[in-house]
Write the structure tokens for this entry.
Amino acid sequence: MLRAVFQTRNPMTFPVSGTGSAGMEFCFVNLIEPGDEVVIGVNGVFGNRMCDVAERCGARVHRIETEWGRIIEPDALATALRQCRQPKLVAVVHAETSTGALTPPADLARLAHEAGALFVLDTVTSLGGCPVALDDWGVDAAYSGTQKCLSAPPGLAPVSFSPRAVETARRRKTKVQSWYLDLNLLAAYWGEDRVYHHTAPISMNYALHEALRLVLTEGLAARWQRHQQNHLRLKAGLESLGISFAAQEGHRLWQLNAVHVPPGVDEAAVRHRLLNEFGIEIGAGLGPWKGKVWRIGLMGENSRPENVDRLLDALRRTLHR
Ligand SMILES: *Cc1c(COP(=O)(O)O)cnc(C)c1O
């Protein structure tokens, strides 16, 4: 079922024990050896986190610094790749949860491959909420999380490695610096031999199994369409309140709506009222967007027209006061 949701045929597709960040670490610790050059797109919190993780693996990191709310452009990647001698991998966040921007991955993957690098994609917020097609796009390694658009509790990180990525991990000269996240040990555990490695969080695996069953019962296309329609419903309602979107037009996420706080409004007071009086939690801005934006999640089961209407009504009343 994970292969179906990731749209991949990669045999090496399974849930790593730990939250989405464990999936991020899994990709970097297995693919990077000390001294490797890596190129990372940074257009929000999670691109920054990937740089931190890669540096801890001993990588020499080239950052593609991009304005918050904007996507990672192919031209910017091409420029960064020209500054590398032998890039090992390129990593990008598909759906930047801190800004609401959706970066199209296919051209970036092609540029990475032309430079001889692997392409790694963070799909924590995208998987189950908008199209993710690892094989069509040429993604070599991807990771996700259970608690965003898959609507399971937090605790597992679905990952997928292409045969090329698996080869890269198998041919390492140095040991993977993390015993817990070592692909070769985990492959033996998930493989036919079921060699004991660690105690998997069994209850979470059942939860993910059920969540994936629900995703596939609904159907991927129907699920994406539901996320899109509820985003449009929210957008129309917010615009009638004079509230505009913060991320680059044409590249906005359906499942995470980052919007400008209207001038003169105490943004924290509004969030607290929504939570305490209406039982609705919306996210605050992070980093440079702290105090300037709200982030409204419409993820998985939560993406429902009645939830959109309830929020719009609560927001209208709160702003009026
Ligand atoms: C939430 C998130 C993560 C981290 O996942 P955790 O489950 O919080 O560890 C990584 N990348 C993106 C894009 C995310 O939204």
Summary: The CA atoms of residues 74 and 108 lie 6 Å apart.
